[in-house]
Design brief:
The protein is mostly helical and 143 residues long. It has 5 helices and no strands. Helices cover 66% and strands 0% of the residues. The chain is extended and about 65 Å long. The chain starts with 12 loop residues before the first helix and ends with a helix.
């Protein structure tokens, strides 16, 4: 028994961009980003699993140069896996913000983050201005 609320056709990225500002974070947009985040979560988990499986089955490496190359590739792959594993909780937090009705709004100012920024970084928590200030502070305190 399908109703209109049970099955909502997702809008395209082009339709999303063309929507007026007054439609910001309406049900269609939230459904679009929910789907995008779920896909990102699934593909990220699949990549992590694939890389780990590849590293568990090393090729037959009798040459020291080949072994060193493979080990370096493994180190790079582990850095990528580590970064992607850090992305998974951010995706979950974004999905929770959708559920709570906070998604798409800066956690510091409450201002809209903006569709273009969310398309590039669907896990964004801050508007661009706040993020720039936070990064500047991080850079200053690192030095």
């Amino acid at each position: 028994m399908d109703t209109d609320n049970d099955v909502m056709a997702l809008i395209s990225e082009q339709e999303l961009i063309k929507m007026p500002e007054s439609a910001y974070m309406n049900d269609e947009q939230l459904a679009f980003f929910r789907n995008l985040l779920i896909e990102l979560h699934d593909t990220t988990r699949a990549r992590i699993k694939e890389v780990k499986e590849e590293m568990l089955t090393p090729p037959d490496l009798s040459d020291e140069g080949d072994r060193a190359t493979w080990e370096e590739q493994c180190r790079i792959a582990m850095r990528i896996v580590d970064r992607e594993q850090k992305l998974l909780p951010k995706i979950q937090q974004s999905l929770e913000r959708i559920r709570l009705g906070h998604y798409g709004y800066c956690e510091e100012t409450g201002e809209p983050i903006g569709i273009p920024r969310l398309l590039v970084r669907p896990t964004a928590e801050y508007c661009a201005d706040v993020k720039v200030l936070k990064e500047m502070k991080e850079h200053i305190y690192k030095e």
